[in-house]
Amino acid sequence: MKKILLINGPNLNNLGNRDKSLYGEITLKKIIKELEMKGLESNLEIVSFQSNHEGEIVDFIQKSYIDSSAIIINAGALSQIGYSILDALIDTKLPYVEIHISNIYSREEFRQKSVLAKNAIGQICGLGIHGYLYALDYLSIHLKTK
User: Fold this and answer.
1) Closest Cα partner for 120 from 86, 91, 145?
2) What is the pLDDT of residue 21?
3) What is the DSSP string of 57-98?
4) Which residue among 2, 15, 33, 96 has the highest number of C-beta atoms inside a 10 angstrom radius?
């Protein structure tokens, strides 16, 4: 069974309470559960992690990537400034998909640039929680062709 790291950044632990017009009503716990069930269908194990602190995300990536196959990351607001996260992702040499629940390109200008995007194999935004599921689908296909 291949392992996929699922990383969520600041404030994503508060899904379900945040602006529902942007983020919907689903909780992070429910998103993780859906991904775990979908992963099993493709023989993929989901290892999830959430932190409001950039250094903790870097620590998780560094200690968890060795026996992993790919990463799904929603770094939230750290997407625009998280160069240490980018460096950790690059160092893993693993394929990763960056996701955002809301459409970052229709929001404030500062949200429209991601330091993580250039090295990602894909970016999904604005599709709500479906972005997580689409990222997993894509990684499943991507890993089979490698």
Assistant:
1) 86
2) 77
3) HHHHHHHHSTT--EEEEE-GGGGTT-HHHHHHHHHHT--EEE
4) 96
